[in-house]
Specification:
heterodimer, A: seven-stranded mixed beta sheet, six-stranded mixed beta sheet, 15 helices, B: 312 residues, TIM Barrel, eight-stranded parallel beta sheet, globular
């Protein structure tokens, strides 16, 4: 190959020659000023009259007042669900399927409205809520609608029966999608549900409650109670729950398991992650870099399966880091409603503080920080895409889940070392492998202790593919036949 | 020394220049199509696309009159003075003298396809004579085709020697090397052929996707493979090579997507007709139509623009 001519090192100019104009999504999210609890098919005010504010993290402006559910309301929700259970479970599967199909289609009809609401409430870029969250949520309802009249085939040779009333608590990173992951299999199997959305992102759940009314879903089959951790503990700890399903942090998951230890409550836990993304020196580097960017900066890194640890084979480490830095300069951080925004707002003030604290710890422990140049919006909770190089296994940023747009880069020399480093974590939710060598992919898929191993891609989801963790990333699966079985008795 | 099998030659070259993952690169380029370009950014992009156009006619039935009309359109695509002239007119060698007489002295260059376009299937001496003839007639730019047979059989030195001979025959004329991507079959081959060409051409010369005479021409995918090769070559050697996607780019929207790929891969220094061109014929009228839409707020009928094939 030709050699470099003398003179300064060539660099690319990513300037403002062709700046894009703002391209805001303008659909009306149809928000209410106040949202009440959804119990027994009706919107009800809590007895205490207490509410809390839901804030747009991109502007710090209040979006709506949300009702706060106390013990009486959680109890009322469980009673309504208990009352609805026998008739709902007794319906022929194809009838339950009709409701689920109807919910899926209504969600598709109102996709833009829900996408804008999701972006306003959670801070994620509109292109993600439009192209991923809402379509995937609808896809989960469609998929499970298809199962509802075929339950005799879920466990060949065995019959299945619903569990009863299930309590569910979901996180703030994919409010509508996590809700669909939880509701759709539970309802297809014939269970009734009491669900609590995360306190910073309740709006799309309560909008969906209106959609469930439109779909004619029998009262009490689905109940939404809103609030913070105390409400969540009431939902998880209620004696009428046959099963609890939780998605959230490992810390809270452990607390729930302690609370329920000694009871006969069934549980599924989808908890934190610290996924390794492993690039071998034979990988197509540009596509690997693109995949790494998708793995960690998707949804501002608020993804439990985010590829937050990059393991690069040492021979290509320098080139991979250079390509990553160049690619990161192309990420547009800003107004989540702008169709060209790649990174939106961090979900809450508290989460922003956590990210700042952990990155500062990484720098203190000797990691080198890279953040692409460019201003952040003056208001709102924003954090730039961040690369930490020179990280080792014992750095905090390599061990703790940051849940933000922060990638830690480590290097390795041999395949065995890559496996050892990838598995040296308390978590085991996902992993990624980038190589042109098929046999190596198969070996790593076996040896990496992670619920999902992606090869030459990352963050790919499908309703038919089970998702869940190893070790402290939880247990139980969501999606596919395995996910359905977690909502059933085998009889 | 016994000759090595051609497959070994390809894998060695791939090892040297790197490989391409088809699924990955197509996911990458799909993101360019979700960019939303509005208002002043749209105007800037449309005008830049006009200025980057190599307005082309390459048909057996071309007439001097058609070339005259093309040249006039190239000089002044639209009556709106804000609309720039195009970069070049691109014709067969027999029309070079005619085209030069119409656009000579202006900013519009005359480009000529040569080297037994589009197949290249004749003797090297004939191909070189064709290049010299076109340059002598006044061509400012030569669009050559590579020897795909030699590339696919692993005779890389022959591919490069032939390109080098054409560079010499060009004299001061700029060279665009057509890889004919649809005959190279894979993205790996497109990347490898890009490097072979870039190693023997001069700064300011171009690599080009296709002749427009086969079934698959310029796509965002093969454009991306080639501009990533240009970027990597530039960062390794400091030599800036230009890029010309050709064939199949018919709408203004498509051309903006290609420009977004350039902005996000090669950066601002390539957003100029000196380093990026569109080889197209019907694209120009769609660009003008969109510019008129931005200016007047309404779409004009096809017959409002000269040389529109779809007029009624």
């Amino acid at each position: 190959m030709a050699t470099r001519r003398p003179g300064p090192a060539p660099r690319l100019i990513f300037g403002d020659l062709w700046e894009f104009d703002p391209a805001p999504e303008t659909a009306d999210p149809k928000l209410q000023a106040r949202y009440d609890l959804f119990i027994g098919g009706r919107f009800v005010r809590p007895r205490s009259g207490q509410t809390f504010a839901s804030v747009n993290p991109a502007t710090e402006a209040k979006l709506a007042e949300i009702a706060l559910a106390g013990p009486a309301e959680v109890d009322a929700a469980y009673q309504a669900a208990g009352k609805a259970f026998r008739p709902w479970a007794g319906l022929p599967g194809r009838e339950r399927g009709k409701y689920l199909f109807r919910i899926a289609r209504l969600l598709q009809d109102r996709a833009r409205e829900f996408a804008v609401a999701e972006t306003l409430d959670g801070g994620k870029p509109i292109k993600e809520s439009r192209d991923f969250d809402v379509p995937m949520a609808a896809a989960h309802f469609f998929y499970h609608a298809g199962w509802a009249d075929k339950l005799e085939y879920v466990a060949p040779g065995r019959a299945v029966a619903p569990l009863g009333v299930v309590g569910q608590v979901i996180p703030w990173n994919f409010p509508l999608l996590m809700l669909a992951w939880k509701l759709a299999p539970a309802l297809a199997m014939g269970n009734c549900v009491v669900l609590k959305p995360a306190e910073t992102t309740s709006i799309t759940a309560l909008k969906l409650a209106g959609l469930l009314q439109d779909a004619g879903l029998p009262p009490g089959v689905v109940n939404f109670v809103t609030g913070a951790g105390e409400t969540g503990a009431l939902v998880m700890g209620h004696p009428a729950a046959a099963k609890v399903a939780f998605t959230g942090s490992t810390e809270v998951g452990k607390a729930i398991m302690r609370q329920l230890a000694g009871t006969d409550r069934r549980m599924t836990m989808e908890l934190g992650g610290k996924a390794a993304n492993i690039i071998f020196d034979d990988a197509p580097l540009d596509q690997a870099v693109e995949g790494v960017v998708n793995a960690i900066f998707f949804n501002q890194g608020h993804v439990c399966c985010a590829g937050s640890r990059l393991l690069v084979q040492e021979g290509v480490a320098e080139r991979v880091v250079a390509k990553l830095q160049a690619r990161m300069r192309m990420l547009r951080v800003g107004d989540p409603l702008d169709k060209n925004t790649d990174l939106g707002a961090i979900n809450s003030k508290g989460q922003l503080a956590t990210i700042r604290r952990l990155v500062a710890a990484g720098v203190r422990e000797g990691a080198t920080l890279y953040q692409p140049p460019g201003p952040l919006p003056a208001r709102g909770y924003f954090y730039p895409p961040t690369l930490l190089t020179g990280v080792t296994q014992s750095h905090r940023v390599a061990r703790e889940e940051i849940f933000g747009p922060v990638l830690s880069v480590l290097t390795f020399r041999t395949v065995d070392e890559a496996i050892e480093k990838a598995n040296n974590t308390a978590y085991g939710l996902s992993a990624g492998v980038w190589t042109d060598k098929g046999s190596r992919i198969l070996r790593l898929a076996t040896e990496l202790k992670a619920g999902v191993v992606w090869a030459n891609t990352f963050n790919r989801f499908d309703p038919s593919s089970p998702f869940g963790g190893y070790k402290e990333s939880g247990f139980g699966r969501e999606g596919g036949r395995q996910g359905l079985l977690d909502y059933a008795h085998l009889v | 020394m016994p000759s090595r099998p051609p497959t070994a030659a390809h894998s060695r070259l791939r090892e040297e220049v790197g490989s391409v993952d088809q699924v990955g690169i197509e996911e990458r380029v799909a993101k360019f199509t979700t960019r939303s370009i509005k208002k002043t950014a749209k105007l800037w992009g449309l005008r830049m696309a006009v200025a980057m156009t190599d307005l082309t006619t390459l048909e057996g039935k071309d007439t001097p009159g058609k070339v005259d009309s093309l040249c006039q359109k190239a000089l002044r695509p639209h009556e709106d003075p804000a609309t720039p002239s195009v970069a070049a007119v691109c014709v067969y060698p027999s029309m070079v003298r005619r085209a030069k007489s119409r656009v000579g002295g202006s900013k519009v260059k005359v480009a000529s396809v040569a080297t037994a376009f589009p197949s290249g299937q004749t003797h090297l001496r004939t191909r070189l004579a064709e290049v010299r003839g076109a340059v002598a007639d006044g061509a400012d730019e030569i669009d050559m085709v590579i020897n795909r047979g030699a590339f696919l059989s692993g005779e890389f030195a022959r591919v490069q020697d032939e390109i080098a001979a054409v560079v010499e025959a060009c004299g001061t004329a700029a060279l665009k090397v057509i890889l004919e991507v649809s005959e190279l079959e894979t993205y790996d081959n497109i990347r490898a052929a890009s490097f072979l060409a870039m190693e023997v051409i001069r700064p300011g010369d171009f690599i080009k996707t296709s002749t427009g005479k086969t079934t698959l021409n310029a796509t965002l995918g093969n454009n991306q493979v080639m501009i990533e090769a240009i970027r990597d070559f530039y960062l390794d050697t400091g030599v800036a090579i230009g890029m010309k996607p050709a064939g199949g780019i018919k709408t203004a929207k498509q051309s903006l997507q290609f420009l977004i790929a350039v902005k996000e891969t090669l950066g601002d220094a390539w957003l100029t007709p000196k380093r990026y061109r569109f080889g197209a014929s019907s694209l120009l009228n769609d660009l003008l139509r969109q510019l008129e839409k931005e200016r007047t707020g309404a779409y004009q009928a096809p017959y409002a623009f000269s040389d529109a094939a779809e007029s009624y």
